Each structure stands twice: as C-alpha cells, then as structure tokens.
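S.,

As promised, the S-adenosylmethionine run. Input:
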Amino acid sequence: MKIYVWGTGCGAGDLLDRGLDPREVCGFLDGEGRDGSFLGRPIMAPDALRGRDFDLILVASRQAEAIAAKAEELGFPREKLLFCRNNWSLQDRNLSYERAARVLPEELLEELRRPQRAMRDPMWLEHSPLQDRDLENDCVRLRSLEGICRRLEGIPGDAAELGVYRGAFARCINALLPKRRLWLFDTFSGFAEEEAGGQAAGLVEAHRLADAKKLLSLLPHPERAEIRRGLFPGTAEGLEELRFALVSLDVDLEESTLSGLRWFWPRLSAGGFLLLHDWANPKLPGVARALERYEGELGCALPAVPLCDVCGTLVLTKSRRLNT
Ligand SMILES: C[S@@+](CC[C@H](N)C(=O)[O-])C[C@H]1O[C@@H](n2cnc3c(N)ncnc32)[C@H](O)[C@@H]1O
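Predicted complex:
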C-alpha cells in the first residue's frame, strides 16, 4: 500500500511509537512549509500529492477541520483519509477504517472509533482572543489557561514557558496576556541528548522540528516575546532577578522538569500560577516523579489542582496575603 502521514509533529511521532512501521510510509505531508525528512522519509507539501496515486493518508494533526478542507480542495478521496486526531466533532469524520486496519494496531483503531464528545464553551468567557484552532488542540487546557490569566490582574511578574516547541500554547499565553513580557525557553531542536536516550523514537524525532523564527511570526504580540534558545537551565543565566505571574512548564522529561521547578518555583509571585503539563500523562511518568523529588527537597507538598485536560496538567499556585 502507498501510505502517507499528514503531519510532522507529536501526532506523527505517536503513530510510529504505537506501532506504525516507518518503512510502510512513503512520505510525511506538512502544510506549513517544512521540508527535509522525518525518520528517514521525505517531508513534502500536500500539494505534491495532487493527481498522484496513493492508498491511504493517516492524518496525524489536530487541525482536522483545516486538513479536511485542504484535502477536498486537492481532490483527495475522503475514503482514503483516516483522521487519527479530533476525528469526532458530532459525527465520525472517517468514512472507512478498512485500509487503516492493515497497518494500525487494533487497540489504536478501537480508540479512534470511540465517540468523542463536542464540548461547549464556558458562558462566562466572552470576547475570547483564542481562536478555534487553539481550542481544537485541547479545549479544557486552553479554557483553563484563559480563566487563570483573567485572575492575574494585579499579580506582578512576567509570563514564561519552558518547553515551547512550535508555540501552540505560547501563542495563547501571548494572546491572553498581551501586556506581559513572555519568556520562551527551548532548544528548538528537541530534547537534551542525555535525556532523549531511551525515549520513544517518534517522540524524540517529532520535537527536533521546531523553528524559533517561525514561532515569532505566529505570535499576536511578538514584541513582548523574549526567546532564550538552548538548553535550560543554562539559558536562564543572568535572569535570576525576574519574577513570574505565570509559568508553563512543559518539557516532558524528568531532569528538565526538575530543573524547571527548581528555577521557577522560588521566582513565582504570590498569587501566581505554574502549569505543570503532562503531570498525569501515563506516557511521561518522569514529570510526576520530578515534582515528587522537588517536593522532597522542599519538605512540603505544593498546593495544586489537577485539570482534566488531554495530558493531565497540574496547576500549582502560591497563596497571597490580602491587604485588609
Ligand atoms: C512537549 S514540547 C512543548 C509543547 C508546547 N508547550 C505546546 O504546548 O505546544 C517539549 C519541548 O521541551 C523542549 N525541552 C525539553 N527539555 C529542554 C531543556 N532542558 N531545555 C530547553 N528545552 C527543552 C523540547 O525541545 C520540546 O520542544
């Protein structure tokens, strides 16, 4: 079979880590102008497939709505597309699972067939600067971020994200906190080598393909962003005096998460929030271990509330005295 994967990010990496053999894949489609290769297979623009013969496209991106429209424009037959993310809105987008059953494990197919419910927006969050494409990514995570940002009025400090990747979450922070400086820490070329060893190949490969310049062009207020490129905590040198009202900590692996907690928690303002992404993610157990180790070092448990978002964020907060 001639199979293509649409996406060169975590979704594509995940398909491979969950059993899709990269030798079965002719190429990876990327609608955002990336080229080169992904796990030894060429990356190409979706337009390059126009008029060419293929059997199946596994859509491994969350931008299902936009990709469905683009595929229609290019004349790709709907029955040859299998949406592996966000395949349900009110009804299943996938017309057939037959071809995919030849290359994907049954367990994954079962998961895709299960109905996913459309979610209503909270009524109290009117006039949101977030766009549908942000919410499609993870509605609970993004709407919670919005609620948290609205509570930050009067709390001093900048915003920061450690672990930015292609900037999907950073873009939302920047949109919701347009007046705050936003520090963005990432290697923009993936995990530290000593941490990447032993991790799933798709996860590691997917994170190599980020681009700091492109990220700036996606931000609604790029003038507020400060990019620190390289391995953290080295990239925080000289910034010790900063204080933060909001920190997103999203580096997936244990040692980097621990470095992030050690550096950011003491610098979080009273009343501020630290969002620990993947804390309850069974695929990334190092995140919860890092928090346990840090709490062990402090000798106390940090006040925290779990979110029921896709990857299990834990929201940590520092209490603040009221001026009475
Ligand atoms: C899961 S991605 C971040 C996703 C992003 N927060 C989002 O929601 O779209 C993890 C990122 O952490 C970065 N990273 C991991 N360890 C790091 C370290 N020690 N220093 C800098 N960046 C690191 C990787 O390069 C990768 O881009």
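The chain has a mean pLDDT of 92. The first strand starts at residue 3 and ends at 6.

- D.
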